[in-house]
Design a protein that fits this description.
- The protein is α+β, with helices and mostly antiparallel strands.
- Helices cover 19% and strands 33% of the residues.
- The longest helix has 21 residues.
- It is globular.
C-alpha cells in the first residue's frame, strides 16, 4: 500500500534529565536508535493458551529477540528462536472442529499436533515445499499442497494419497484420420479376419488395463502455461477449487537501477508495471472428484457487470454506446461452512467498483447472489478489501457473515441462504475495524471506533447483534489477540505519547489488565515532557468536520510561524489516541514546537477511520478535497492561533510528499516553503492496484490524471521547495523526482533543491541518510519561515 515507511529520528532535542538540560545531537540519536525504548511486536498465543509470544529487544541488541510471557508470571523470558518459530507456525495452523487437533506448515513441511496430549507428528520431509494443511473428508484426512497439487494423509492409516494431477501443457489430441484413411482402415478389417482379431484383442486388453487401474488413475487437468493459485479442497473432500492465472503478453515492467554496488557495476532491480498496464487475468474452476469433471465457473452474468462506470460519460466519443462487455473479475475463496454443504465466494471487479458475495454450487458451478456491493468510486473499507483484507465466513450451516459499507460505514451483516434474508448485526456512524468469530460461533469479537473516530475499544457481541459488551477500557490504540480457548486476550496498547506495551487480560468486562512489558519508554525518553496533544476539529469549506492535533509552543516561545505535517499512505489514520505510525515525525513535531513553531497534523479527506464518503473523497481528483482540507487548516491556524499567514510551511513523505508538491504548485499564496519526501509527481507512473482504484486508468480517464499529477502544475512554483528521494525506491520510483527536476529546469525555476540518496529505498534505513534529510528540512523552515 502506498506511502508506508519506517523512519529513524534525525534531529536534536533538549531533554531534562535529573534536573539539568542534556543536549542530544542528531548524530547521537541516529547512532542509538533504541533511546526511545523497545516495544513488543509480532504478538501471538501459543497453542497451550497460557503463553503469549512476541519479538522484543530489551537488551538493545542489533535486532529483536524472541520472548514468551506465561500467565501470572512476573516477567517475560527469552525463548529459543527455533522453538519460537515452531510455536508461531502452530499458531497460524488449522484446528479440527473440536479444537483437539492442529495441523500446520513449518519450513516447507507439514506437522500434526494432538493438542490434548501435546504429541506432534511430522507428516512430510521433502525437498519440495508443502503448505496450507487443512482437515477434510469428515476430518479423516490432512490435506496439503505440494507444488500445483493436493495430497491427503489419512490420520488412521497413515497412507498418503495424491488427490489432483494438474500439469502444464495442453491435452494431447487424438490423431484424426482423413476420410480416405478411415475408408482404408475399414477395408483392411473387412478383408482380413486375422487383422480384425488382433485389433479386437488389443482393444480388449487396453480396456482391461484401464479398468484395473480403478481409483489409482488420476484425472489429468492440463493448465497450459498458466499459474495455479488458491488451490483448496472442500471439507467433505468432494470439490477441489482453484484459479488459473494467465499473464498478459508483452506487459512491460519498470526497472529500478542500483548505482552504488559491491561490484562497481550498475545493476537493475526488476519492478512493477505502471497503472493501466494489464497484468493478466484469472479463471476460476471446480473439480468434482465424485463426478470426475472440471467446470469453469462463469462470471459473465453477475448483476451490474455490464454497466459502464459513470465517469465514462465525460468521454462520449471514446465510450460511444456499444454492446457492453462483462467486467473482468477475480474470484476469491470459496469459503465453506463446516460440513461442506454450502460455500460462498468473494468476487471483485478489476475496475475496483463492484464486489459480489455469491453462493457457489460446486456440483454445477452456478452462482447465486448473496450480496452485491457497488461504489462508483471504489469498493473498500475495513474488512471489505482493497486497502484491507476481507473478513467473511459462516455462523452456522446456512448463515454466512460479511462486512459492507452499505450505510456509509463498515459494518457486520449476516445472510441466511435458506431464507435469502440479510440482517445488520452492527450499525451506526462508526467502523467495525477488526472481526473474529468465536469458537462456538455464538459471538463476534470486534474492535470499533464508535466512542470516537480516534479511540478504539474491544467488544463481544452476540451474532444476532444483541448484548454488546465492552472488554477493554483504556483510551488509545489496540491490537488484540485472543487465546485459543478465548479465556484471555493479549493486546498491544498505546497512547499518543506512550509507545506500545503488551497487556494480558481475562476476556470479560471489568477485568483488570496485567502489563507484561515495561520497556517501551527509556528513562531518557520519560524525562522529556512529550506533548499529550489535544485532538479537536475544525470546519472545512464544505461544512465537513476535520480532525486535527496541534503541537503548541510553550508560553513565551511562540514565533507565529506554523508547519503542517501531512501523513502518507492516503488511506491511513494519524489523528488518533494511539501511538503514531509516524513516531519520528511525532518527535520532530515536538522539536518544532520547542523552537516556537505551531504544528498541525490533520486527517484530510481520504484518511482512514471516518467511513465511506471520507475514504472516497479524492475519487478522480487527488489534490482536490484533500488539499482543500490542508488549506483550510492553514486558515484555521491564522484565525484561531494568530499565525502569520505569510509564514506557513508543509512537509510529508510519499502521499504527504505529493500533497506538498500540489500545495507549493497550486497554493503559493498559502504555503511559503515545503519539503516533499519521496513524492509521487505523476500518478500515471505509479502502480495499478492503488492508483487504478482512485483515478481509474490513465488512457480511460485522462481528466483525472491531468488534474491530479503535480508535474502538470510545476509552473506555479513561487516559494521554496525541497525534494528528497531515495534512488533505489521500488515503490515511488526515483524517476518521478528526475522527471520533475527536468520540468523545473525547463521552467527556469531556481528556488528548489533535489537531494538524492543513492542507497535508499522508499523507507530510509541508514542513519546518515535520515540525518542529512531532516537537517535539510529543519534548515528549510528556519531559513524561510523565521525571517
Amino acid at each position: 500500500m502506498l506511502m508506508r515507511k519506517i523512519l529513524v529520528s534525525v534531529f536534536s532535542i533538549v531533554i531534562i534529565l535529573q534536573g539539568r538540560a542534556q543536549q542530544l545531537t542528531v548524530e547521537k540519536i541516529m547512532q542509538d536508535t533504541k533511546w526511545i525504548g523497545t516495544s513488543p511486536s509480532s504478538v501471538f498465543w501459543g497453542t497451550d493458551g497460557k503463553t503469549v509470544l512476541f519479538r522484543w529487544n530489551p537488551e538493545k541488541a542489533l535486532s529483536d529477540s524472541t520472548y514468551g510471557y506465561t500467565l501470572h508470571a512476573k516477567e517475560p523470558v527469552k525463548w529459543d528462536y527455533n522453538q519460537w518459530q515452531t510455536a508461531q507456525a502452530a499458531s497460524e495452523g488449522t484446528y479440527n472442529k473440536a479444537k483437539t487437533q492442529l495441523v500446520y506448515a513449518l519450513k516447507g513441511d507439514i506437522y500434526w499436533l494432538d493438542v490434548t496430549t501435546n504429541i506432534t507428528k511430522r507428516l512430510t520431509q521433502t525437498e519440495e515445499y508443502d503448505s496450507n494443511p487443512v482437515f477434510a473428508h469428515n476430518e479423516e484426512w490432512v490435506v496439503y499442497q505440494k507444488g500445483n497439487n493436493l495430497f491427503a494423509w489419512d490420520i488412521k492409516s497413515g497412507l498418503t494419497t495424491q488427490l489432483t494431477k494438474l500439469v502444464g501443457g495442453t491435452a494431447p489430441s487424438p490423431k484424426k484420420l482423413s476420410e480416405e484413411e478411415q475408408w482404408l482402415a475399414a477395408q483392411q478389417l473387412q478383408t482380413s479376419a486375422i487383422i480384425k482379431q488382433r485389433k479386437d484383442k488389443a482393444d480388449a486388453r487396453k480396456a482391461f488395463l484401464q479398468s484395473a487401474k480403478g481409483s489409482d488413475t488420476l484425472h489429468i487437468i492440463y493448465i497450459d502455461d498458466k499459474a495455479v493459485d488458491g488451490l483448496q479442497i472442500s471439507p467433505d473432500g468432494r470439490f477441489v477449487t482453484y484459479r488459473l492465472y494467465e499473464e498478459a503478453k508483452n506487459a512491460k515492467k519498470t526497472i529500478v537501477p542500483r548505482y552504488v554496488t559491491e561490484s562497481g557495476y550498475t545493476t537493475d532491480i526488476p519492478g512493477r508495471t505502471k497503472v493501466g498496464i494489464y497484468e493478466g487475468g484469472y479463471a476460476f474452476y471446480v473439480y468434482d472428484k465424485l463426478k470426475d469433471t472440471v467446470i469453469e465457473v462463469k462470471t459473465d452474468s453477475l448483476p451490474g457487470s455490464l454497466e459502464a462506470p459513470l465517469y465514462t460519460m465525460d468521454y462520449p466519443v471514446k465510450f460511444a454506446p456499444k454492446k457492453a462487455a462483462s467486467k473482468k473479475v477475480t474470484v476469491f475463496g470459496p469459503y465453506w461452512n463446516e460440513d461442506g454443504s454450502a460455500a460462498i465466494v468473494d468476487i471483485r471487479s478489476d475496475d475496483f467498483k463492484d464486489r459480489w458475495i455469491m453462493q457457489l454450487n460446486g456440483a454445477n458451478g452456478k452462482l447465486t447472489v448473496v450480496d452485491h456491493q457497488h461504489d462508483e468510486a471504489w469498493i473498500g473499507g475495513p474488512g471489505i478489501g482493497w486497502e484491507t483484507s476481507s473478513s467473511l465466513g459462516w455462523i452456522n450451516a446456512h448463515t454466512c457473515w460479511f462486512q459492507s459499507e452499505a450505510t456509509g460505514y463498515s459494518h457486520l451483516y449476516s445472510f441466511d441462504v435458506s431464507t435469502q434474508t440479510k440482517t445488520a448485526i452492527t450499525s451506526g456512524k462508526y467502523e467495525v475495524q477488526q472481526v473474529q468469530l468465536s469458537n462456538d460461533k455464538k459471538y463476534f469479537y470486534i474492535v470499533t471506533n464508535e466512542e470516537h473516530p480516534g479511540k478504539q475499544q474491544f467488544y463481544r457481541i452476540n451474532t444476532d447483534g444483541s448484548n454488546k459488551q465492552q472488554i477493554t477500557t483504556m483510551t488509545g490504540g489496540y491490537e488484540v489477540s485472543l487465546s485459543p480457548d478465548e479465556k484471555y486476550i493479549a493486546y498491544r496498547y498505546s497512547y499518543q505519547n506512550k509507545p506500545w506495551e503488551l497487556y494480558v487480560q481475562e476476556n470479560q468486562p471489568g477485568k483488570k489488565p496485567v502489563q507484561a512489558t515495561t520497556k517501551a519508554m527509556s528513562e531518557e525518553w520519560k524525562a522529556y515532557p512529550w506533548r499529550d496533544t489535544k485532538i479537536s476539529t475544525f470546519t472545512a469549506r464544505d461544512g465537513a468536520e476535520v480532525y486535527a492535533r496541534i503541537y503548541e509552543p510553550a508560553k513565551g516561545k511562540k514565533n507565529n510561524a506554523a508547519v503542517i505535517f501531512v501523513h502518507g499512505a492516503g488511506y491511513l489514520q494519524n489523528v488518533d489516541y494511539g501511538w503514531s505510525y509516524y513516531q519520528h515525525e511525532f518527535m520532530f513535531n515536538n522539536l518544532l514546537a520547542d523552537k516556537g513553531y505551531t504544528v498541525i497534523d490533520i486527517d484530510y479527506r481520504a484518511s482512514a477511520g471516518y467511513g465511506r464518503d471520507w475514504r472516497t473523497g479524492i475519487y478522480r481528483y487527488m489534490g482536490g478535497k484533500d488539499l482543500d482540507d490542508e488549506v483550510d487548516a492553514a486558515h484555521f491556524l491564522v484565525k484561531q492561533y494568530g499565525i502569520d499567514s505569510a509564514r506557513i510551511g508543509m512537509y510529508g513523505g510519499s502521499y504527504g510528499g505529493f500533497m506538498t508538491l500540489m500545495a507549493l504548485f497550486t497554493q503559493p499564496n498559502v504555503f511559503k516553503a515545503g519539503a516533499a519526501l519521496r513524492p509521487v509527481t505523476d500518478w500515471a507512473a505509479y502502480n495499478d492496484g492503488y492508483t487504478g482504484a482512485i483515478l481509474n486508468r490513465p488512457f480511460e480517464d485522462s481528466i483525472a490524471y491531468a488534474r491530479s499529477s503535480p508535474i502538470n502544475f510545476a509552473a506555479g512554483l513561487k516559494n521554496h521547495l525541497l525534494i528528497c528521494h531515495g534512488m533505489v525506491d521500488e515503490n515511488v520510483h526515483f524517476q518521478d523526482a528526475v522527471r520533475l527536476a527536468q520540468r523545473l529546469i525547463e521552467l527556469h525555476k531556481e528556488n528548489w533543491e533535489l537531494a538524492a540518496y543513492p542507497v535508499e529505498d522508499h523507507g530510509f534505513v541508514e542513519a546518515s541518510s535520515w540525518t542529512d534529510e531532516y537537517k535539510r528540512i529543519l534548515k528549510l523552515f528556519d531559513d524561510n519561515l523565521l525571517k
